[in-house]
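A.,

Following up on our hallway conversation. Structure tokens first:
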């Protein structure tokens, strides 16, 4: 079984780090980007099996990044999980255009994000869901 390749795009370092540790503990290869432009460059360089992106990021939003990602031949069908703050509304048209697979609202359970992400990886790249008690704590915005 090969390792699943996960691309995490979020401008909040603590979100990237916590999620990266969980996915790495399950055997995934994780790449991290702090904005949509960096994430798009990484995806063009090496296609991920899964993308988890924040909506609100500098330089290029998660929606803009997701729409651009669909233009990369090797990323047309990559599942995208979008993370959004509770008070931020993503338009249904934007979600459909970018073919966002799932939207999760912050604060979210680390376990929920990881379990969802693992379920979206190709069958040959899946591992067992996370199971430690840290995974139960909700992850909040740094500003919250």
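Then the amino acids I'd put at each of the 144 positions:
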């Amino acid at each position: 079984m090969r390792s699943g390749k996960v691309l995490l795009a979020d401008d909040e370092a603590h979100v990237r780090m916590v999620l990266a540790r969980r996915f790495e503990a399950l055997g995934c290869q994780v790449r991290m980007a702090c904005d949509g432009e960096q994430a798009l460059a990484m995806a063009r360089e090496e296609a991920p099996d899964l993308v988890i992106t924040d909506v609100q990021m500098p330089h290029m939003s998660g929606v803009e990044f997701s729409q651009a990602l669909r233009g990369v031949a090797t990323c047309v069908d990559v599942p995208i999980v979008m993370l959004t703050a509770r008070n931020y509304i993503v338009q249904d048209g934007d979600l459909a255009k970018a073919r966002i697979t799932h939207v999760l609202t912050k604060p979210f359970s680390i376990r929920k994000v990881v379990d969802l992400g693992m379920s979206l990886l190709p069958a040959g790249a899946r591992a067992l869901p996370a199971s430690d008690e840290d995974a139960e704590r909700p992850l909040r915005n740094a500003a919250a």
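The first helix runs from residue 13 to 25. Curious whether your intuition agrees with the design.

B.
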